[in-house]
Amino acid sequence: MEYTKPLAQLIEFFQKFPGIGPKSAQRIAFCLLKMQLSDIQKFARLMIDAKTNIHYCDICYNMSASNPCEICSDTKRDNSIICVVSEIKDLIAIEKTREYKGLYHVLQGLISPLDGIGVEDIRIKELLTRISNSSINEIILALGSSVEGEATSMYIAKLLKPLNIKISRIAFGLPIGSDIEFADEITLARAIEGRRLINSPEQISR
Amino acid sequence: MEYTKPLAQLIEFFQKFPGIGPKSAQRIAFCLLKMQLSDIQKFARLMIDAKTNIHYCDICYNMSASNPCEICSDTKRDNSIICVVSEIKDLIAIEKTREYKGLYHVLQGLISPLDGIGVEDIRIKELLTRISNSSINEIILALGSSVEGEATSMYIAKLLKPLNIKISRIAFGLPIGSDIEFADEITLARAIEGRRLINSPEQISR
To answer: What is the pTM of this model?
Structure first.
């Protein structure tokens, strides 16, 4: 005997989610069946509501129940800086630092020819239109250091060069609290390459 | 900014499940939002249906949409043997071997005084009633080798002794494919203790 049919279907559905294998799906399904029916009904409504109400912001492609999103419609934020990220979770990670008060642009992906993702498949065109329609002073590229992140950063930097805007990238180097002896060669090389003068905020020019 | 409210609520709910932390919950929620609305509605129905239709079998306390469950109502199974397990997932694990054709009894827990779980809190009384109402030849205890598993096995064995039924425990020893040199001392000690004569199916009596 396998699981009774409704339970087997439930376990199968949970396996569609990332990082959930057969054993985790089983544990989650049992946990769900132990909940109150009213809680499960609330959960079901929550999922359907989220899917129905959450849309992409027409300006920055963040996900939000309002359009424009909470960030784009916040008048206290600095609308002369745009931080370009690949996914919404990167935006949230930056927001959690409470250091950045500008706007965002979510590309919804990175250029990756191997996966068949080209320049047209991510929101680069929309970024260009957005920059040309407003007065932007600086674009911060926060796209990670993977091959795809590097390629997309280089592509956007080249594209924006004629527009005469300040273009920066977030710093790569040693994470805070880590030891130099345990850092990998590439991180250490990037940390030396990106060194800064102690008495000046300017980066040493390469 | 944190996540937009419906998304934050969804992420929070996913964190209620075992093994799902904030980052996994976030990934699962994004994955859910990328699904079709019709799939999400199907998933929601599946959860509510499972909760509404699945109940414990009145005989063996397995979970099933029918009562008695598929196993108890299967006339092809040997109803003179009962395998006692602590949780339904153990029942499913044994079923997957396709070796056992008897019935089951799910205790829904193990005796664990530290967690406040006593003899009355698990389905031992129901097991006794069941045995006295039918002609059972053998009880197989498949309760694991934790302190709680050992204690529960000993308790049930002692309780059943006057009834003059064969009482057995599943074998503990080296897992198939493992090396003797890497086995821990307790497993190896149990493997030697539980050794069997090669030419006879009988275990060496202790």
So the answer is: 0.76
